[in-house]
Amino acid sequence: MNDVPRCARKHGTISIVDGDDPRGWTQYSLAPPQKLLKVLVQRSGCFNIVDRGSGLQAAQRERDIGGDLGLQRGANVGQGQIKAADYVLQAEVQGANSNASGSGVAAGVGGLIGGPFGGLVGGLRSRKMEANVVLSITNVRTTETLATEDGYAAKNSLSFGGGGGVFGGFAGGGVVGGGYDNTDIGRIVTLAFIQAYAKLVTGLGYTNPGDTGTAEAAPAKTFTTQGPVALRSAANAAGKVVRTLPPGAIVYPTGNKDGMWWEVADENDNVGWVLNSKLAPSR
Protein backbone atom coordinates (compact mmCIF):
# COMPACT_ATOMS: atom_id res chain seq x y z
CA MET A 1 0.00 0.00 0.00
CA ASN A 2 2.88 2.28 -0.66
CA ASP A 3 1.74 4.20 -3.72
CA VAL A 4 -1.18 5.65 -5.62
CA PRO A 5 -2.28 3.45 -8.57
CA ARG A 6 -1.50 4.80 -12.03
CA CYS A 7 -3.62 4.59 -15.19
CA ALA A 8 -2.14 4.65 -18.69
CA ARG A 9 -4.99 6.88 -19.92
CA LYS A 10 -7.97 8.88 -18.69
CA HIS A 11 -11.28 7.07 -18.27
CA GLY A 12 -13.61 10.05 -18.23
CA THR A 13 -14.44 12.96 -15.95
CA ILE A 14 -15.19 12.60 -12.27
CA SER A 15 -16.67 14.73 -9.51
CA ILE A 16 -15.65 14.02 -5.91
CA VAL A 17 -18.09 14.38 -3.02
CA ASP A 18 -17.94 13.73 0.71
CA GLY A 19 -20.03 11.14 2.52
CA ASP A 20 -23.19 12.09 4.40
CA ASP A 21 -21.75 11.71 7.91
CA PRO A 22 -18.97 14.24 8.61
CA ARG A 23 -18.19 12.89 12.08
CA GLY A 24 -15.63 10.45 10.69
CA TRP A 25 -13.27 13.30 9.82
CA THR A 26 -14.45 16.27 11.90
CA GLN A 27 -13.81 14.49 15.20
CA TYR A 28 -10.09 14.62 14.37
CA SER A 29 -10.20 18.12 12.89
CA LEU A 30 -9.53 16.76 9.40
CA ALA A 31 -10.73 18.57 6.29
CA PRO A 32 -13.46 16.91 4.20
CA PRO A 33 -11.88 13.93 2.39
CA GLN A 34 -12.59 15.30 -1.09
CA LYS A 35 -9.67 17.66 -0.45
CA LEU A 36 -7.38 14.63 -0.18
CA LEU A 37 -9.06 12.61 -2.93
CA LYS A 38 -8.58 15.40 -5.47
CA VAL A 39 -4.82 15.08 -5.03
CA LEU A 40 -4.86 11.27 -5.18
CA VAL A 41 -7.12 11.10 -8.25
CA GLN A 42 -5.14 13.74 -10.09
CA ARG A 43 -1.90 11.93 -9.38
CA SER A 44 -3.32 8.60 -10.57
CA GLY A 45 -4.12 9.94 -14.03
CA CYS A 46 -7.27 7.80 -14.19
CA PHE A 47 -9.79 10.65 -14.49
CA ASN A 48 -10.12 14.33 -15.26
CA ILE A 49 -11.61 16.09 -12.24
CA VAL A 50 -14.53 18.49 -12.60
CA ASP A 51 -14.91 20.84 -9.64
CA ARG A 52 -18.36 21.10 -8.11
CA GLY A 53 -17.24 22.87 -4.93
CA SER A 54 -15.39 26.11 -4.34
CA GLY A 55 -13.89 26.01 -7.83
CA LEU A 56 -17.34 25.97 -9.44
CA GLN A 57 -18.50 28.79 -7.19
CA ALA A 58 -15.51 30.89 -8.24
CA ALA A 59 -16.21 30.13 -11.90
CA GLN A 60 -19.83 31.16 -11.43
CA ARG A 61 -18.72 34.49 -9.98
CA GLU A 62 -16.67 35.09 -13.12
CA ARG A 63 -19.72 34.33 -15.25
CA ASP A 64 -21.81 36.70 -13.16
CA ILE A 65 -19.22 39.42 -13.67
CA GLY A 66 -19.41 38.83 -17.40
CA GLY A 67 -23.19 39.11 -17.36
CA ASP A 68 -23.43 42.17 -15.13
CA LEU A 69 -20.35 44.20 -15.99
CA GLY A 70 -19.22 42.83 -19.31
CA LEU A 71 -15.87 41.23 -20.16
CA GLN A 72 -13.16 42.32 -22.54
CA ARG A 73 -13.71 41.51 -26.19
CA GLY A 74 -12.51 38.01 -26.97
CA ALA A 75 -13.14 36.73 -23.43
CA ASN A 76 -14.54 33.22 -23.73
CA VAL A 77 -16.78 32.61 -20.70
CA GLY A 78 -20.06 31.92 -22.45
CA GLN A 79 -22.82 29.39 -21.92
CA GLY A 80 -22.58 25.68 -22.71
CA GLN A 81 -18.94 25.24 -21.73
CA ILE A 82 -19.13 23.48 -18.33
CA LYS A 83 -18.02 19.89 -18.74
CA ALA A 84 -20.32 17.17 -17.41
CA ALA A 85 -19.09 14.56 -14.95
CA ASP A 86 -19.18 10.97 -16.17
CA TYR A 87 -18.77 9.62 -12.65
CA VAL A 88 -19.20 10.66 -9.03
CA LEU A 89 -16.71 9.40 -6.44
CA GLN A 90 -18.02 9.45 -2.87
CA ALA A 91 -15.56 9.29 0.02
CA GLU A 92 -16.52 8.25 3.54
CA VAL A 93 -14.51 7.84 6.74
CA GLN A 94 -16.39 5.14 8.62
CA GLY A 95 -14.17 5.08 11.67
CA ALA A 96 -10.78 6.15 12.93
CA ASN A 97 -8.94 5.74 16.21
CA SER A 98 -5.87 7.63 17.34
CA ASN A 99 -4.57 10.53 19.28
CA ALA A 100 -4.73 13.32 16.73
CA SER A 101 -1.39 14.82 17.72
CA GLY A 102 1.09 15.32 14.91
CA SER A 103 4.15 15.32 17.15
CA GLY A 104 4.78 11.59 16.86
CA VAL A 105 5.72 11.60 13.21
CA ALA A 106 6.29 15.20 12.23
CA ALA A 107 10.01 14.93 12.87
CA GLY A 108 10.32 11.79 10.76
CA VAL A 109 8.28 13.00 7.79
CA GLY A 110 8.52 16.43 6.21
CA GLY A 111 4.75 16.72 5.88
CA LEU A 112 2.69 14.36 3.77
CA ILE A 113 4.74 15.29 0.75
CA GLY A 114 8.35 14.31 0.29
CA GLY A 115 9.23 12.65 3.60
CA PRO A 116 10.60 9.12 3.94
CA PHE A 117 7.91 6.50 4.38
CA GLY A 118 9.95 4.72 7.01
CA GLY A 119 10.04 7.87 9.11
CA LEU A 120 6.27 8.06 8.96
CA VAL A 121 5.67 4.61 10.30
CA GLY A 122 8.57 4.63 12.71
CA GLY A 123 6.99 7.53 14.59
CA LEU A 124 3.57 5.97 15.09
CA ARG A 125 3.32 4.59 18.59
CA SER A 126 -0.42 4.47 19.39
CA ARG A 127 -1.82 0.93 19.37
CA LYS A 128 -5.19 2.29 18.22
CA MET A 129 -3.80 4.08 15.19
CA GLU A 130 -6.21 2.83 12.53
CA ALA A 131 -8.82 4.02 10.04
CA ASN A 132 -11.61 2.49 7.96
CA VAL A 133 -12.79 4.27 4.81
CA VAL A 134 -15.14 3.55 1.90
CA LEU A 135 -15.08 4.77 -1.71
CA SER A 136 -17.95 4.29 -4.15
CA ILE A 137 -18.16 5.31 -7.79
CA THR A 138 -21.46 5.99 -9.57
CA ASN A 139 -22.17 6.34 -13.29
CA VAL A 140 -23.93 9.71 -13.64
CA ARG A 141 -25.89 8.76 -16.76
CA THR A 142 -27.30 5.49 -15.42
CA THR A 143 -27.06 6.24 -11.63
CA GLU A 144 -25.58 2.74 -11.31
CA THR A 145 -23.04 2.25 -8.54
CA LEU A 146 -20.18 0.64 -10.43
CA ALA A 147 -17.99 -0.29 -7.47
CA THR A 148 -17.69 0.14 -3.72
CA GLU A 149 -14.41 -0.59 -1.99
CA ASP A 150 -13.22 -0.26 1.58
CA GLY A 151 -9.77 0.65 2.82
CA TYR A 152 -8.08 -0.01 6.13
CA ALA A 153 -4.78 1.23 7.46
CA ALA A 154 -3.09 0.95 10.82
CA LYS A 155 0.40 1.45 12.11
CA ASN A 156 1.12 -2.27 12.29
CA SER A 157 -0.15 -2.94 8.76
CA LEU A 158 2.35 -0.57 7.17
CA SER A 159 5.85 -1.07 5.84
CA PHE A 160 8.58 0.12 8.18
CA GLY A 161 11.53 1.59 6.33
CA GLY A 162 9.80 1.27 2.96
CA GLY A 163 11.28 4.51 1.67
CA GLY A 164 9.54 6.76 -0.80
CA GLY A 165 6.09 5.41 -1.58
CA VAL A 166 3.21 7.82 -1.69
CA PHE A 167 4.88 10.27 0.64
CA GLY A 168 8.00 10.48 -1.47
CA GLY A 169 6.12 10.52 -4.75
CA PHE A 170 4.44 13.90 -4.46
CA ALA A 171 6.35 17.08 -5.18
CA GLY A 172 6.72 19.84 -2.62
CA GLY A 173 5.56 19.93 0.99
CA GLY A 174 2.15 20.28 2.58
CA VAL A 175 0.20 20.11 -0.69
CA VAL A 176 -2.85 18.35 0.75
CA GLY A 177 -3.21 20.17 4.08
CA GLY A 178 -6.40 19.86 6.12
CA GLY A 179 -4.69 17.72 8.77
CA TYR A 180 -3.78 14.96 6.31
CA ASP A 181 -0.09 15.86 6.27
CA ASN A 182 0.57 17.09 9.83
CA THR A 183 -1.31 14.66 12.09
CA ASP A 184 -0.73 10.98 12.71
CA ILE A 185 -4.34 9.97 12.09
CA GLY A 186 -4.48 12.13 8.96
CA ARG A 187 -1.66 10.12 7.42
CA ILE A 188 -3.32 6.84 8.36
CA VAL A 189 -6.62 7.97 6.80
CA THR A 190 -4.65 8.91 3.68
CA LEU A 191 -3.17 5.43 3.37
CA ALA A 192 -6.59 3.84 3.91
CA PHE A 193 -8.00 5.91 1.03
CA ILE A 194 -5.06 4.94 -1.18
CA GLN A 195 -5.81 1.27 -0.53
CA ALA A 196 -9.52 1.73 -1.30
CA TYR A 197 -8.79 3.71 -4.46
CA ALA A 198 -6.27 1.12 -5.67
CA LYS A 199 -8.83 -1.65 -5.18
CA LEU A 200 -11.49 0.41 -6.95
CA VAL A 201 -9.57 1.26 -10.13
CA THR A 202 -8.06 -2.24 -10.30
CA GLY A 203 -11.50 -3.81 -9.92
CA LEU A 204 -12.81 -1.63 -12.75
CA GLY A 205 -9.98 -2.87 -14.98
CA TYR A 206 -8.21 0.48 -15.21
CA THR A 207 -4.97 -0.93 -13.80
CA ASN A 208 -3.53 -4.41 -13.43
CA PRO A 209 -2.61 -5.89 -10.02
CA GLY A 210 1.14 -5.65 -9.52
CA ASP A 211 1.68 -2.90 -12.09
CA THR A 212 4.24 -0.25 -11.17
CA GLY A 213 2.55 2.31 -8.99
CA THR A 214 -0.26 0.06 -7.79
CA ALA A 215 -0.76 -0.89 -4.19
CA GLU A 216 0.15 -4.53 -4.79
CA ALA A 217 3.48 -3.65 -6.37
CA ALA A 218 5.06 -2.79 -3.02
CA PRO A 219 3.63 -4.93 -0.21
CA ALA A 220 4.38 -4.21 3.41
CA LYS A 221 7.73 -5.63 4.50
CA THR A 222 7.30 -7.75 7.60
CA PHE A 223 9.40 -10.55 9.05
CA THR A 224 8.64 -13.55 11.23
CA THR A 225 10.81 -14.85 14.05
CA GLN A 226 12.15 -18.36 13.44
CA GLY A 227 12.39 -19.17 17.12
CA PRO A 228 12.53 -17.38 20.47
CA VAL A 229 14.34 -14.10 19.81
CA ALA A 230 15.62 -11.56 22.33
CA LEU A 231 14.53 -8.02 21.51
CA ARG A 232 17.38 -5.90 22.88
CA SER A 233 17.73 -2.22 23.74
CA ALA A 234 21.04 -1.94 21.86
CA ALA A 235 22.55 -3.49 18.73
CA ASN A 236 24.73 -5.98 20.57
CA ALA A 237 24.42 -9.11 22.68
CA ALA A 238 25.01 -7.10 25.86
CA GLY A 239 21.95 -4.91 25.30
CA LYS A 240 19.16 -5.16 27.85
CA VAL A 241 16.41 -7.57 26.83
CA VAL A 242 13.24 -5.59 26.19
CA ARG A 243 11.26 -8.80 25.78
CA THR A 244 11.67 -12.26 24.28
CA LEU A 245 9.72 -12.65 21.08
CA PRO A 246 8.04 -16.04 20.66
CA PRO A 247 8.44 -18.16 17.52
CA GLY A 248 6.24 -16.88 14.71
CA ALA A 249 6.05 -13.30 15.99
CA ILE A 250 5.60 -10.60 13.33
CA VAL A 251 8.06 -7.70 13.45
CA TYR A 252 8.34 -4.50 11.42
CA PRO A 253 11.86 -3.22 10.54
CA THR A 254 12.26 0.52 11.09
CA GLY A 255 15.07 0.72 8.55
CA ASN A 256 17.85 1.21 11.11
CA LYS A 257 20.64 -1.37 10.82
CA ASP A 258 23.97 -2.06 12.50
CA GLY A 259 25.69 -4.96 10.80
CA MET A 260 23.50 -8.02 11.29
CA TRP A 261 21.42 -6.21 13.89
CA TRP A 262 18.10 -4.73 12.80
CA GLU A 263 15.92 -2.36 14.75
CA VAL A 264 12.32 -3.62 14.67
CA ALA A 265 8.95 -2.99 16.31
CA ASP A 266 6.64 -5.78 17.40
CA GLU A 267 2.85 -5.75 17.29
CA ASN A 268 2.70 -4.32 20.81
CA ASP A 269 4.81 -1.30 19.86
CA ASN A 270 7.97 -2.54 21.60
CA VAL A 271 11.03 -1.33 19.69
CA GLY A 272 14.44 -2.94 19.92
CA TRP A 273 17.25 -4.74 18.12
CA VAL A 274 17.38 -8.34 16.86
CA LEU A 275 19.78 -10.41 14.78
CA ASN A 276 18.47 -10.67 11.23
CA SER A 277 19.63 -14.29 11.09
CA LYS A 278 16.73 -15.07 13.43
CA LEU A 279 14.14 -13.67 11.00
CA ALA A 280 12.53 -14.74 7.74
CA PRO A 281 10.26 -12.77 5.38
CA SER A 282 6.61 -13.16 6.32
CA ARG A 283 4.39 -15.01 3.87
Describe this structure in words.
The protein has two domains: 13-50 and 85-217, Double Stranded RNA Binding Domain, CATH 3.30.160; 223-281, SH3 Domains (SH3 type barrels), CATH 2.30.30. Strands 2-1-3-4-5 form a five-stranded mixed sheet. The protein has a five-stranded antiparallel sheet with strand order 11-10-9-6-12. It has 283 residues and is α+β, with helices and mostly antiparallel strands. The longest helix has 20 residues, at 184-203. The chain has seven helices and twelve strands. A hairpin with a 4-residue loop joins strand 10 and strand 11. Helix 2 (34-44) crosses helix 7 (184-203).
Summarize the SSE layout with pairings.
Blueprint: E1 13-18, H1 23-26, H2 34-44, E2 48-49, H3 54-68, E3 87-97, H4 103-106, H5 117-122, E4 130-139, E5 145-154, H6 165-169, H7 184-203, E6 223-225, E7 229-232, E8 241-245, E9 250-258, E10 261-266, E11 271-275, E12 279-281
Parallel strand pairs: 1-2, 1-3
Antiparallel strand pairs: 3-4, 4-5, 6-9, 6-12, 7-8, 9-10, 10-11
